[in-house]
Amino acid sequence: METKEELIRSSVQQLVRIARKYARIEELPISVDGGGEVTTREAHIIQAIGEDKKLNVTNLANRVGITKSAASQMATKLTLKGFIEKMQAPHSNKEYLLSLTHSGWQVFHAHEQFHGKDMAELVNRLNAFSLSQIATISVLLDAIGAVIDERLAKVRKK
User: Fold this and answer.
1) Res 73: pLDDT
2) Measured distance CA(124)–CA(12) in Å, rounded
3) What three-state secondary structure class fits 37?
4) Across 31-45, 72-86, 103-117, which has the greatest mean pLDDT?
5) What is the spatial distance between Cα 20 and Cα 85, in angstroms, rounded to a whole number?
6) Stretch 1-16: mean pLDDT, rounded?
7) 93 — phi, psi (to 5°)?
8) Alpha-carbon gap, residue 56 to 86, rounded angstroms
9) How far apart are CA 92 and CA 1, in angstroms?
10) CB neighbour class for 18 (10 Å; exposed up to 12, middle 13-18, buried from 19)
11) Number of helical (H) and strand (E) elements in the chain, helices listed first
């Protein structure tokens, strides 16, 4: 029988494996109607912009959990690919608002379908758990997320 600490370590290792698999998924291509493709990571950026019509680079970074620099680079890349547009904010010469082009909206809808299927499958599988088990998972994920946030904050200070 495993001790509590062994079970915790085993669970963290399992979460790390899942995170690595998810990172691989983020790089998988999604074909776009009319040609071209985007990575899942790019589709998540497009999704965030499509869900919030007045998103700037800073808000995009906060929303998807990346640095402002990474968000800026991704916005530039997706602009060059023709999926998003940058428009100068009416209240600032330094700030740009991001919006989707027609091609960007195609990616948005394709990605929603992808996520819809995955989410339906997750809900189907997790419905077998009790409400208290789901609540426990949520609390555990919050604790793990807090440790990761603290680690990232330390790295940013250096």
Assistant:
1) 96
2) 24
3) strand
4) 72-86
5) 31
6) 90
7) -80, -20
8) 9
9) 62
10) exposed
11) 6, 5
Question: Mind listing the pLDDT tens digit for each residue in 48-86?
Answer: 999 987 799 999 999 998 989 999 999 999 999 999 999
The whole-number average pLDDT for the span 10-37 is: 85
Say how far apart CA 8 and CA 15 lie, in whole Å: 11
50, 100 contact by CB (below 8 A): yes
Q: What is the DSSP letter of 22?
A: H
pLDDT, residue 76, reads: 95
The C-alpha atoms of residue 77 and residue 71 are separated, in whole angstroms, by 10
Neighbouring C-beta atoms of residue 140, cutoff 10 Å: 13
Cα–Cα distance measured from residue 39 to residue 71, given in angstroms and rounded to the nearest whole number: 15
